[in-house]
Amino acid sequence: MNSALTRYRVMATIVGILLIVLCLVGVPLANFDGSSMWGFIPATPEWVTPGSTAHTVGEQITEKLGVAHGWLYMIFLITAFLLSRQERWSIGYTAVTLACGTIPIVSFWAEHRATQRVRAEAPELVS
Q: Among 22, 76, 79, 82, which lies 20 to 30 A Cα-Cα from 56?
C-alpha cells in the first residue's frame, strides 16, 4: 500500500468537502444579505436577513470551518508535495495538483487524476 498516496487522498477529500461547505453554504449564508462584500462587491443578493438564524449559522461556518480548513489545507499541501516528490512529478504537474486543491469540486478531479497516475506508474505499490 502506498501510504503517501493514502495520506494525500484522505487530505484531498477532507479539504475538498470543507471547501465546498465553506464556499457554497457558509459564505452565501454569512454574506448574501444585500450588503457590500469584501470592499469591492457593491451589493450581494438578499438571500438572508442579517441577524437571522441562517445568517448566524453562516457566520459560524465561515469563522470555525474557515480556520479549520486553512490549517487542514496546509497539511494537504504538505502531503501532496511529499507525494509529488516520491513519484517524481514534474513541477508543472505538481503545481496544477496543488492549485486545483483551492477550487471547490475541481479538487476531487485533481485527486482522481493524481491517484490514477500513481496507480498507473507503480501498480505494485497500490492495492
A: 76
- How many Å apart are CA 75 and CA 104, to the nearest integer? 17
| Interatomic CA distance for residues 29 and 110, integer angstroms | 28
Whether residue 62 lies inside any domain: the answer is: yes
pTM value? 0.83
Give the count of domains, the chain. Answer: 1
pLDDT for residue 98: 92
Q: Which domain holds residue 79?
A: 3-21+58-125
Considering only CA atoms, which of 76, 111, 75, 80 is closest in space to residue 4?
80
